[in-house]
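Supplementary notes for students who missed Thursday's class. We covered one full example, reproduced here. Read the sequence, then the structure, then the short commentary at the end.
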Amino acid sequence: MIKKLLLLALAMSLPVAQAAEWSGNIALQNRYFLHDPLVQNTEQHSNHVSLSAEPEFYHSWDDNQQSLTFTPYVRIDQYDNERSHGDIRELNWQRVFENWELKAGISKVYWGVTESQHLVDVINQTDFVENIDGEDKLGQPMIRALYEHELGTLNLFILPGFRERTFADAEGRPRAFPVVDTNQAQYESSAEENHIDYALRWFQMVGNWEIGLSWFKGTSREPVFLPATRNGQPVLLPYYPQMTQSSLDAQMTTEEWLWKLELISRNWRNTDSQTQLLVNENYLALTAGFEYTFVGVLESDADLGLVMEYLYDDRDEATTGFFENDLMTGLRLALNDAQSTEALLGVIIDVDTQESLLSLEASRRLGDRWKLELEIRSFQHVNRLSRLQSLKNDDFIQLDLAYYF
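Structure (token representation):
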């Protein structure tokens, strides 16, 4: 099915392009870890260097009513074989009609409005070896139909093919312990990665509000981890259950305020905390908060935003994620200068245990073609039984220098 979908996208691109262009970036990354890893069962390194490239080819024809997009991605890591990987982020054909659109091939779709986590974003798989923040996604095979009406925009998705989540190897960092063995991945569906998933999304702007209602049925992009062994050593086995998820995301915008909400209801199979057997589970989770922007601080061109969000999961300590009763606070700075200098400093604190995740992301353009990015992650006051325990020593400072063409 996936091969047929790719052939369809390529076949549709046969007419001579009226507009064609290449763009993208090549980046050198240095990631430095401040501490030795929690468990040293292989040769370990504090400094990891990698090189990535993400070119994009785009052309259109038929008076821009049809287009082809191709975006491959590759990263070569100094030590981690799992992080040295390639992917097709985009390879799709799109046809625009009067009030609807059709897209076929591999693509990326983003849903959500909150800053700290993206509960409603379930179409694309997370590329976890790129970053643990969940922002990087693998390309997803799909057929997508979009219909625009005065009552809102309706998106219908057929998703013929599943992508497994990527995880760091024994020499990679940050990583889980025990290491996740992706070669032993299991599925609830007998079709495994060939299961066909479906999704539906309605979006509308009402006054100052942007409202999205979404529904997804298929293989969960988030795995459940089961204990296993590899060569006599303990590992974690990723198990991908079937799930049904309904969600709401909403954002209200005024001159200085952004009010945000993501809410999900999910039914799937998870491990019972007592028996460790797979059982059916229904739960609710939400992220809600606001961002207030001080425009022109200190009579300058800079804007300073205050971000606050609350993260809740009604499973409490049985949650499969990192957050169940947490508070996120942050500061967003935009200098609004010619170099597009920006920074976001945030901290997520567990209300019950006081463990925290500190994050800093900053970027600045260097001339017309270059961009420098800084990222810092730090884990503080991690509880011995916490899901963050295997990452507690993986504080790192990361620098990326990218050339855009």
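Commentary. The CA atoms of residues 206 and 252 lie 9 Å apart. Residues 2-11 form the longest helix (10 residues). If anything here is unclear, bring it to office hours.
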